């Protein structure tokens, strides 16, 4: 079971990291458009539509990636004080009541939007029309990946309720953890250093001087 969970984690991570390159594309496109508009005096009518669609793709494809890293916002002020079993029980209830219906509805509606746009070969309304249906396909695709990751998280909740601790997940870049920093730096300013005798270096003279 754990191998299956980590495999889905890796899929979500791969897709998230792949579509994260859209940020580079957005940066280059916006920079070029500013230069083209204000220096060359030659703006492009289609550029804004491309930027909006590219940002939408980036935003939607980040959902499953963020969920796989347990990075979505929650009320950590209270949640962090709960035991693992209590956290898992609360998460399981919320996944069933809100997550599954909401993401399923988004995926189903997104598929309808895509098929209708494909049937009429929907385009943007500007001087240089662009096809919209490839962009709308991302909605059900992102929803399906998010739904798959959601089932993995539900399985994690059930395993945690059974075993009393959270199963492991695929790791990636994380935010700075203040607790880990506190563990590395003593309250008196001495820094932990495994290469020194006793594992501690004294703080610099300027930091431990007295008046």
Describe the protein's architecture and organization.
The protein contains eight helices and two strands; from the N terminus they run αααααααββα. With 211 residues, it is mainly alpha-helical. A two-stranded antiparallel ribbon has the order 1-2. The chain is globular, with a radius of gyration of 24 Å. The relative contact order is 0.13.
The Cα radius of gyration reads 24 Å
Helicity, as a percent range: 55-70%
Class inferred from helices and paired strands: mainly alpha
Q: How are helices and strands ordered from N to C? A: HHHHHHHEEH
What is the terminal separation in angstroms? 61 Å
Unreliable residue stretches: 207-211
Mean pLDDT: 83
Q: What is the general shape?
A: globular
> How many helices does DSSP assign?
8
How many E-type strands?
A: 2
| Main β sheet profile | 2 strands, antiparallel
Strand order of the largest sheet: 1-2
- Give the amount of beta strand, in percent: under 5%
